Amino acid sequence: MIITRHVEARAVLADTRYVPPPVRQDAPPYTLGWLRARVSRFSSGEAHAERRRALEERLAELDPATLRRRARAATLERDGDWRGVPTQVLAAALGVPAPVPLVEAVAAGYLSGEETPGTDAAVAELFRLPGDGPSVITDLTLLLQAHAATEGLIANALTHEGGAGVKGLLRETLRHDPPLKVTRRVDRATGEEVVIDLVAANRDPAVFADPERFDASRGECPHLTFGHGVRPCPASAHALALAAGVLDALRAAPRQLTSERPVSDQREDS
Ligand code: HEM
């Protein structure tokens, strides 16, 4: 079933009967499958509640305003070459010495579930980095969730650059041109897969006036790009801060903007 209406999308996302599609639980240690079986994003019920609590506690230690300043500074330092900046800034704030290419290598498979020798090797390498205990998975989860979605938001916002304030630009980009297009659930009772079409729901004419028009002055609007209900993105403030910091810097160095192109290989889920 594909959900395109905003009201129905909200109802599914708020209903505990619908859970993320289950992931395998029998993968060998330090492989992609092993990692996916241990994170909040793909778990449900009590395991999800407990893992999500740990994520929220960790996120509460990170100040979005500081992330924004650091993302701005890092982008300026790199003369506008912003790719990798959000992940680098987040990793530094968490104290995780994870190189951006390694996070990127794992992030693709983390979301899609596609297990390859390459992604398994990258997961093993991530877990060889210094650090120990349950917080390692919490910190790596944050980096893996953050990477593609935040870069996708920035890249998409840059295609609409044109004088609007950063806040309005990011908010309307999230609604009109979200970095992730769908999210999935499974009905626990029947096993039926439910695909929530975020692009369609964010342009539902019952909720958004003139929905096809990109309007950075639209103001607060109930887009679903950060999810909703049982498991919305716990880091929307952090994501917005990282993206805003990069845009702050690019506005200070506008010549960099001309080299931007839209994201063409956006990931489906976040
Ligand atoms: C523009 C950037 C981002 C977008 C659009 C986004 C969106 C989302 C969405 C829609 C979900 C829920 C998925 C679902 O319900 O199926 C989610 C989950 C999550 N996001 Fe984000 N996210 C972004 C950035 C970030 C960042 C920067 C972080 C970390 C600092 C982060 C951490 C997480 C985590 C840990 C979860 C899993 C929550 C759970 O399992 O309950 N996200 N995100």
UniProtKB/TrEMBL annotation:
<dbReference type="GO" id="GO:0016705">
    <property type="term" value="F:oxidoreductase activity, acting on paired donors, with incorporation or reduction of molecular oxygen"/>
</dbReference>
<dbReference type="GO" id="GO:0020037">
    <property type="term" value="F:heme binding"/>
</dbReference>
<comment type="similarity">
    <text>Belongs to the cytochrome P450 family.</text>
</comment>
<dbReference type="GO" id="GO:0005506">
    <property type="term" value="F:iron ion binding"/>
</dbReference>
<protein>
    <submittedName>
        <fullName>Cytochrome P450</fullName>
    </submittedName>
</protein>
<dbReference type="GO" id="GO:0004497">
    <property type="term" value="F:monooxygenase activity"/>
</dbReference>
<dbReference type="InterPro" id="IPR036396">
    <property type="entry name" value="Cyt_P450_sf"/>
</dbReference>
